[in-house]
Specification:
alpha+beta; three-stranded antiparallel β-sheet; two-stranded antiparallel ribbon; 5 helices; 5 strands
Length: 119
Amino acid sequence: MPEFFHDKRLYYTPIEFALSHIGGTWKMPILWRLQESPQRFSELKKDIPHITDKMLTSQLRELEAKGLVSRTVYPVVPPRVEYSLTEKGRKAIPVIETIMKYGFSLIQEAGIEYPPRKQ
């Protein structure tokens, strides 16, 4: 596959380019949670318990910059902000679902109890 540049960065494959948009620990879980309806920062934070405020903020900004998430600020006091998927973000959901199914099959093959029983 031919390599290419985008935004001053060299990519070797389309897979690498796609993962620059949705890869990492937190981007796919954020996108997954936004597929049903727009959510506020606090709702996302509550639904993704191990993410820090700083990390959630930076990941939402990156997803917004890539055009996968839109941020709507409502002119009320106090200000209300909601995040939602864009059409580009919706296209990522089937990919995330496929990766999730593959992950579940790997967990099963490894003999890992999932979800783990609470101790």
